[in-house]
Amino acid sequence: EAQVTQNPRYLITVTGKKLTVTCSQNMNHEYMSWYRQDPGLGLRQIYYSMNVEVTDKGDVPEGYKVSRKEKRNFPLILESPSPNQTSLYFCASSLGRGARETQYFGPGTRLLVL
Amino acid sequence: ELKVEQNPLFLSMQEGKNYTIYCNYSTTSDRLYWYRQDPGKSLESLFVLLSNGAVKQEGRLMASLDTKARLSTLHITAAVHDLSATYFCAVTGTASKLTFGTGTRLQVTL
Predict the structure, then answer these.
(1) Who has the most CB within 10 Å: A44, A45, A68, B30?
(2) Residue B15: which of B103, B64, B66, B84 has the closest Cα?
(3) Backbone dihedral angles phi then psi of residue A100, each to the nearest 5 degrees
């Protein structure tokens, strides 16, 4: 089944404890992206990747890192999480041409930073 | 900077009624998406609109695009409870970015 998977789905952590949220897609998509969703703000792009080893900042990249060593995986890293990073995170992927193709979203990761 | 505004933010409507959700965007774009999100779920693609005057329909939902007015509408015909969800429009600015509106939470009551 074609899908985007994220792990973990739920995470409670404490300020400053490094964490990684994994994202994987099995559709051979070139483009992958991370969004955070907050009430009243819609979805905001954190980072995106046009292809392997090509990543760039979105609208709200502060406090996050990403890497794209393989085409299928695009992990989101919070080196030192803070409470303002409590949010719902979505990974998405699309076949090519960046955001000019329909994006397929993962199930989401709900993060609480205490 | 591309901005995308939706209205209304919240819509409560009775079953059987019609209504329209509006999506305005601030800079030229040639591609607009509508997504649906059920509570606690991910986003599901509904429509992609590619050109001025484009109209797409699926069941009781119809989306249209006016690129000159920078406006898209999502029209709901004879609403049913199953349509209760949050609807997002999203606009492609640069090739790498998709900018979302804040969403319209639709509640269809019996």
Answers:
(1) A45
(2) B84
(3) -90, 5
Pair of tokens at residue B1: 């900077």
In tens, the pLDDT along B16-61 reads 999 999 999 998 887 899 999 999 899 999 999 988 888 999 999 9
List pLDDT tens digits, range A4-59: 999 999 999 999 999 999 999 999 999 999 999 998 888 999 999 989 999 999 88
Query: What is the β-pairing status of strands B104-109 and B10-14?
Result: parallel
| Burial class of residue A114 (count of CB atoms within 10 Å of its CB; 0-12, 13-18, 19+) | exposed
Domain borders along chain B are 4-109
B4-109 belongs to which homologous superfamily?
Immunoglobulins (2.60.40.10)
The answer for A 36-75 residues in CB contact with B (under 8 A) is 40-45, 48, 50, 56, 58-59
Cβ neighbours, 10 Å, residue A67: 15
